[in-house]
Structures are given as C-alpha cells and as structure tokens.
Write a structure and sequence with these properties.
By secondary structure, the chain is mainly α. Helix content is about 65%, strand content about 5%. It contains 8 helices and 2 strands. The chain has helices at about 10-15, 15-40, 45-60, 70-95, 110-125, 130-145, 150-155, 160-175; strands at about 175-180, 185-190. The protein has a two-stranded antiparallel sheet with strand order 1-2. Helix 3 packs across helix 4.
C-alpha cells in the first residue's frame, strides 16, 4: 500500500513504519525549525529533541483529533513542548554547578581583550558606511566621550560643521541598519539597499 496524504494518519495508527517516513518527508522541516528556535543555545540536544518528537507522534497519534486542529499545528505543539522540556532539563542540570568549582583559564586581561575585540568589530561594522573623517568624529565623541569643544579644537573643524557631519552620519547609519521585530525579539540587521 502506498502511503499518501489521505491514509498516512490511519497507517501510523496501525503502526506502519512507512507512514513515519511520510511524516519525516513532509513535517521534519517544521519540527527541526521549532526545536532549533527554542533550543538555539543547546544545539547538542536539538537532534535528540527531534527524535523524541517523532517518537511522541508515533506513540500518541491516537490523541490527534482532526476536528480540533490541523496535523501541522498538533506536531508544532508537541515540538514546542518537547523543546521546552529539554530546556528545563538542561537548566535544572546546570543550576547545581558551582562556578567556583569550574576551572576557567581566562584571566582578567584576556577576558578584557576578548570583549574589546568583539566591541571593536561591532563598532567597525556599524561605522563602515561612513567616511574615515566622520568615523573619527564618531569615535572621539561617542567612544572616547569627548566634548564637542574639545573635538573641535583637536580636529580644527568648527562645531557647526561637526554637528552637521554627525547628523548626516547618524542618518546614514540608520538607513544602513534597520530595526526589525520578528519573534518578539528586537535585533539590528544590516540593510542591503544602499
């Protein structure tokens, strides 16, 4: 018997393993994306979660009611709750670790260098759309936290010119980076329209 959209649920209920192949072919992408979303920081358990979801579908297909929801939504719900269970299980396991017992081989100077390198990369990316002289102004004003009068004297540029350059620079940065609201989280993404 060929497994298709019309008979795969009935075949899973009859415990036909080929019906699970149909589920994998048609619903694995949804299961993986949901588990990846909820377990993004726990990539080591994502595959285990996916396998657990498939097993739950196999074992609990009798509880699926097509009059209450679509199969896609039912599978998405199982996946979400399994991922949350895995996250809880992981968090429960790490709650009892004492940070003093961990052997961390990073001294303060090394940690400071790592943080400064990351901040420098982010700053360079953010200011990459500006001309070199405008980048220098932004660094002096916003990174080094210098006063406008001081920057004017240092660079030999009048304050009103600095204000204009900074204003134009801010507009350019805003147009290059747009605020996007997706899944309840806000993040900055680079715009490809230049």
């Amino acid at each position: 018997m060929k497994i298709n959209e019309m008979n795969f649920i009935e075949q899973i209920k009859k415990k036909n393993p080929r019906a699970m192949d149909y589920i994998i072919d048609n619903y694995l992408g949804i299961i993986q994306s949901i588990s990846k979303k909820h377990l993004s920081n726990l990539s080591s358990v994502q595959d285990e979660c996916v396998n657990d979801v498939l097993l739950s579908i196999w074992r609990n297909i009798d509880s699926y009611d097509s009059t209450r929801s679509e199969l896609r939504n039912w599978i998405a719900g199982i996946t979400k709750f399994k991922a949350i269970d895995y996250k809880r299980k992981y968090l429960k396991g790490i709650c009892y670790e004492n940070i003093d017992d961990l052997n961390i081989a990073i001294d303060d100077k090394c940690a400071e260098n790592i943080i400064n390198d990351d901040l420098r990369k982010d700053l360079d990316e953010l200011l990459s759309c500006l001309k070199e002289k405008d980048r220098e102004l932004f660094i002096k004003l916003y990174v080094e936290d210098r006063m406008m009068d001081e920057v004017s004297i240092m660079t030999g540029i009048q304050k009103n010119v600095i204000y204009n350059r900074v204003s134009r620079g801010k507009k350019k940065i805003r147009s290059n980076f747009k605020l996007v609201e997706g899944t309840g989280e806000k993040e900055w993404i680079k715009s490809f329209s230049k």
